[in-house]
Amino acid sequence: MAADGAPLLELEGISKRFGPVQALDRVDFAVSAGEVVGLVGDNGAGKSTLVKAIAGINPPDAGTIRFEGREVRIGRPQDATELGIATVYQDLALCDNLDVVSNLFLGREEVAVGPGQVSRQLDEVRMEHETADLLSNLAVTIPSLRSEVGTLSGGQRQQVAVARSLLGEPKVVMLDEPTAALGVPQTKQVLELIRRLRERKLGVVVISHNLADVFAIADRVFVLRLGKAAGEFQANEATEEHVVAAITGVGNNREQDEQSGEGERA
Amino acid sequence: MSATEAATGGEAAERPTAAQTLRRVVQGDLSSVRVVLGLVVIAVIFQVQEDRFLSAQNLTNLMLQITTIGLISVGIVYVLLLGEIDLSVGAVSGLSAAVMAVLSVNHGWNAYLAIAAAVAVGAAIGFLQGSLFSRFVVPSFVVTLAGLLAWEGALLQVLGKTGSLNINDPKITGLANTFYSDTVGWIFAALIIAAYGAVVATGYRKRLSAGLADRGAAQLIVRFVFFAAIVIAAVAILNSDRGVPLAVMILLGFVVGMEYVAKRTTFGRHVFAVGGNAEAARRAGIRVNAVRVAVFTIAGTMAAIGGVMAASRLFAVNQNSGGNELLLLAIAGPVIAGTSLFGGRGSVWTALLGALVIGSISNGMDLLSLSSAVKLMVTGGVLLLAVLVDAVARQQRSASGRV
After folding, report:
1. Regions of chain A where pLDDT drops below 50
2. How many helices (H) and strands (E) does chain A have?
3. B7 in Cβ contact with A132 (< 8 Å)
4. Closest to B284 (Cβ–Cβ): which among A107, A125, A140?
5. What is the C-alpha to C-alpha distance for residues A147 and B13, in angstroms, rounded to an integer?
6. Which of A57, A94, A109 sits opposite B266 (nearest CB)?
7. SS3 label, residue A224
8. Which of A188, A120, A142, A196 is nearest to A165 (CA)?
9. A125 to B212: CB separation less than 8 angstroms, yes or no
10. CB B237 within 8 A of CB B243
């Protein structure tokens, strides 16, 4: 499941400053098609800032972004969407007062053909149909597509959010803490869903605090520390201890850190 | 296909029992049912006290009395759906009507041009307030409170020294004082029922052919019969007095049209999304500020239309136009009828239902010749009750995991 060919998304020398805080400092990052990259780091390490930079929420101050080998500028969320970069945020960004179908198609509603087009009338039937198809393809089960998202469980909401990110047929999907606050069976469902994204040859970036989850799904683990790249590991070659050492920055030699006791933080 | 099956299967399993339905009525999920029950109670109370209340003449008067509030409330519903408030609509309705009166009476403008100018003034004010609110992120109640004062001042300015203008152009006064003949009334009824039937039938056929039929045909037929009965009864009552008023048709037209926009169009969906979770809407690529400006423009426009209707009924515009409790009643109506003050929940129908509730109470108390002291206190009590019900419904939603 390793990356094939050139990276799909490639970042070089990305910096971002919030007032006195250097949130990102010349970070290089890449993800290829069919690859799951785990993005890890302590609180404030810059993981979310990096994702927001790629997603166009907080454009970087410096650095270049290349998508499919072409240099691009991502100044607004729409720019990222148009390129084919979808983001699922930790707070899911769902409208609890709307149903599953409405949330899935939010911001890209299907418009009816015929006279209703003038008023940009919604094609509810088509949207519901496509929702059902997409969810069954992903093996996601939701009791009713017309139930308000606010009534669903955390795992179902996460799956709706991930499914929504796929509607625009993106090439890269970024997931911010997809398993935080989920129970064991729900976490399993979400990890399964991420594997299916990889099978679809998407580039997947997963931010997580949970190293067990990261190792369960990631091909590669990228560590940020205090806004700087602090290490990169092939998931099948590295151990959690190596990654924890890079996260905490204890010692310069990874081998020594195994005895430092910091490994228990995982 | 498993999701489709799960979806339809789940819905069949979720068909509510009678007890669940009752609980939903009480808790406010089915708030329109609650409001209709409330209307029945109000009608019974006043009818017992004063048997003119349910007479055809009084019911026709009631319908005419609620047109202004109803029209303004249509715009307020949109503002409430955003979770915002517009305190300027009363003043805007007065100012717009004054602009129309001055242009028509003092400058001899064509009636339709004068009305168009009034509506344009309302729209421009709404656009301005919406832009200020969204551009500078000032709370909407502050922006529109400033508007309330400023536009009331502008009303006095426009009316000049006399402070009052009588409108005599029959095209303007005809808006609120035209009644259709019995035949035309029945034609309206037939058209409305046929249109409703066509919408329901095509919608059902479309869902059926897509394999998404979730409501039984029997349920739809019951609804259709119920709807037809209400329309026929309403036209029969109105015909036995002066006939179907043009003003009522205008109000219904706006309610139906704006309900369509709210529930069936992309724009309406975006209004609900911004009201439910503005940040989520922004990230979904919805131009949140554009939606906000549009909604306040709608509110200003509907306020102007309501103001024109009020002037038409009164045959005049004066310094009190759009003043008194008009603003608060226009906001109270939709809230009483179930549109949430917290945004993201409601429908344009609540503008009509709420105006009916408030109008009935006010009309009934007038028939009983109660003092305005009592009237104000009763209306205040009803509003408080409605807001409490809204808040309790919201708490229960969040208690059951729904925000």
Report:
1. 1-3, 253-266
2. 9, 10
3. yes
4. A107
5. 13
6. A109
7. strand
8. A196
9. yes
10. no
The confidence score (pLDDT) of residue B28 equals 47
Concatenated DSSP letters of B140-194: HHHHHHHHHHHHHHHHHHHHTTT-EEE---HHHHHHHH-B--HHHHHHHHHHHHH
| CB proximity B11 to A under 8 Å | yes
Helices (H), B315-348: 326-336
Q: Which residue type is seen at B293?
A: V
Q: Are A207 and A39 in contact (CB under 8 A)?
A: yes
Q: pTM of this prediction? A: 0.85
Distance from CA of A5 to the nearest CA of B (A): 31
- Do B143 and B293 contact (CB within 8 A), yes or no? no
Q: Which range, of B59-73, B251-265, B379-393, averages the lowest pLDDT?
A: B379-393
Task: Please tell me the predicted confidence (pLDDT) of residue A145.
Answer: 87
Cβ-based interface (< 8 Å): residues of A facing B = 57, 77-78, 81, 87, 89, 91-98, 102, 106-109, 111, 116, 119-122, 125-126, 128-129, 131-133, 135-136, 139-146, 148, 150-151
Q: Which residue has the higher pLDDT, B121 or B381?
A: B121
**Among B265, B279, B283, whose Cβ lies nearest the Cβ of A119?**
B265
Cα separation values, A264 from A224, A226, A253, Å: 19, 21, 18
Q: Residues, chain B, total? A: 403
Q: Write down the domain spans for chain A.
A: 1-84+171-266, 96-169
Shortest alpha-carbon distance between residue B5 and chain A (Å): 9
Length of chain A counted residue by residue? 266
Q: Is B390 exposed, middle or buried (0-12, 13-18, 19+ CB in 10 A)?
A: buried
Please indicate whether, in this complex, the C-beta atoms of B264 and A108 are within 8 angstroms of each other. no
Cβ partners under 8 Å of residue B377, min gap 6: none
Which pair of tokens denotes residue B397? 């939603």
Superfamily of domain A1-84+171-266: P-loop containing nucleotide triphosphate hydrolases (3.40.50.300)
Residue with tokens 């329901």: B200
